[in-house]
Amino acid sequence: xxxxxxxxxxxxxxxxxxxxxxxxxxxxxxxxxxxxxxxxxxxxxxxxxxxxxxxxxxxxxxxxxxxxxxxxxxxxxxxxxxxxxxxxxxxxxxxxxxxxxxxxxxxxxxxxxxxxxxxxxxxxxxxxxxxxxxxxxxxxxxxxxxxxxxxxxxxxxxxxxxxxxxxxxxxxxxxxxxxxxxxxxxxxxxxxxxxxxxxxxxxxxxxxxxxxxxxxxxxxxxxxxxxxxxxxxxxxxxxxxxxx
Length: 244
Prior knowledge:
GO terms for molecular function: translation elongation factor activity. The chain is of the alpha/beta class.
């Protein structure tokens, strides 16, 4: 079956690495971005150089209307994604009492409600084809909680529960739903750490280093494959042994 992917947050970090990895396997990639059109197009050009078709599409995943418009754009292009990888996400660092309602809502809208909108817009098409892969990017903090990141952890914990519920709903239609749960990965979310903070973090991780976006992409690559059809409803950690 021809695989067509929609990768959210594909202009940078893990999303960009996932887009390139899937393109290297000959999978056409629709790349959602919210603000960085130039960065998204640069990644799309890399995907094309690997032999895949690639398009970039602007959308706000926290908006129902914008997600519906995203689906309409793909329909006009006659692209029918049967592989969804939701990498887009926001982070927020503050104690709960310092987290205002807008910050809370922003995280929930993109991280969790965005996953809901994607499931609503694209789930029926995958089930109709009787083949699909729905892969959600979570976080170690969605499993353990995190001081100073309650809103972020709560949104990712919700992603984990949503994925397990969808896996039960969609399994009989040949659609798998899984979660990739990275620990510390070298993306913009760690950009604020200075050299001493990074060294301290590496000492906490049994593997002794921070992960790479390409390592996350390789796990997504397996979950996107034909061979992964019996893997569903799973939360797959990728954290160098930081959490076992």
